[in-house]
Amino acid sequence: MARDPLIGIVGKPSAGKSTLLNSLTDANAAVGAFPFCTIDPNKATGYLQVTCACSRIGKESLCKPNYGWCESGKRHIPIALLDVAGLVPGAHSGRGLGNKFLDDLRHADALIHVVDVSGTTDAEGKNTRGYDPLYDIEWLQDEIRLWIEGNLKRRWGSIVRKHTATKSSIVDTLQAQFGGYGSLPVMVKRALDRIEDLPPLENWDDEWITRVVKEFMKEKFPMVLALNKIDHPDADKNVSKIMLRYQKEHKMVITSAVTEVFLRRLKKQNYIRYEEGTEFVDTCEDDPDQLKPLDENVLQKIDKIRDLVLYRFGSTGVVQVLQEATGLLDLIPVYTVKNIHTFTGNDGNHVFKDCILVKRGSTAGEVGRAILGNNVTIAAIETVGGVRVGEDARIEEGENDILSFKLAPRSKE
Ligand SMILES: Nc1nc2c(ncn2[C@@H]2O[C@H](COP(=O)(O)OP(=O)(O)OP(=O)(O)O)[C@@H](O)[C@H]2O)c(=O)[nH]1
Predict the structure, then answer these.
(1) What is the DSSP letter of 77?
(2) For residue 244, is pLDDT > 70?
(3) Which CDD domains has this protein been placed in (predicted)?
(4) pTM: predicted TM-score of the whole model, two decimal places
(5) Helix (H, G, I), strand (E, B), or coil: what is residue 352?
(6) Using CA atoms, how far apart are residues 109 and 62, in angstroms rounded to an integer?
(7) In Å, how far are 16, 53, 224, 249 from 333, measured between CA atoms?
(8) To the nearest whole number, what is the mean pLDDT of the chain?
(9) Ligand 1 mean position, distance from CA 227 (Å)
(10) Residue 307: burial class (beta carbons within 10 Å; 0-12, 13-18, 19+)
(11) Is the ipTM of this structure higher than 0.95?
(12) Which residue of 38, 98, 131, 171 sits 20 to 30 Å from the alpha carbon of 67, by its own alpha carbon?
């Protein structure tokens, strides 16, 4: 993943994708109750919440990120999100706006599948009652699989001929096919390594192809389920069913995207004090000096939200769902500073202005080259206390994730 990570938000129409996206961003994706309300894939910046390095050294008040923000030691790091709308059963064969959306999907590194657990919308997003959302999890995965399989099978004859003629490894042959999805050889290898007794590629039948594609999907499109609309009275029984069936296969987070949008809006207007990702909401009743008064209806709505969502589940879940999705990508924050003793940047006043997300296992040298490019010579790398870090040293959270790069002077030509 040399480029910035991208998290795709998928799900059937009206599951709540745009609402979730709105709750994670400040972008105003069109939110509507109608299928295909979102016609164009909607890219936006979400903010991943992490405990910032400033809180380790008690400098929360001086922390001023160049991108995103930091509040009381909770840093919000920008991360790209993609609203992939309009997936319906049969999308792989062009139903709905199928192929277009599946093509958009190929850019995503991980997926958040928004599942409507209220049971009030059918597989196509139309209003109904008592719908079983277990089916949505199955068909959506099948659509992605059938799309990849279709692309593979269309060329299978020539793939096999070339594979045998060139005596390529299976990894190389599959990587040549899966490269268009942004796959890396290591992903293909990990997928293949999980399959026991894999025959030579020229002997694969449809069943083997399906098994391979299923394992590849786990690598390329790892998925977290956002069990959305938990504020709805019918949600509980559906959530239990899904958890029972899928808890071994998928990470899951219970969410109420609409609640998060509502709370963030009130917070912005200074009606409430609300810490995103928590159950804590203060109103004018708690702090009449600081918070604007709210009318009785809204106060009652907030009480209902506390009972139905916040106190029952601990939060609206949206902060956590992005954390889980990023967790699937195994990303960790690295802080780069000019001065390793004061943690300041060029302006000398604020700490930890720069922070990037890197793949766990990255080395200090790789981080340096990702930030500074290949045209500079890194003379030395230091971490907290001025301790030297080797270019080959793996970045470990809390140990050497605060780095300062000293560059060798450019030689005059
Ligand atoms: N009760 C409840 N309703 C929600 C929640 N999240 C979204 N909704 C509602 O569900 C409807 C559809 O939401 P959208 O966000 O437009 O759904 P979408 O998945 O983006 O739909 P398309 O754009 O058609 O793909 C809207 O009326 C939302 O207000 C939730 O957490 N709880």
Answers:
(1) E
(2) yes
(3) Ygr210 (cd01899)
(4) 0.89
(5) coil
(6) 33
(7) 29, 9, 20, 27
(8) 89
(9) 12
(10) exposed
(11) yes
(12) 38
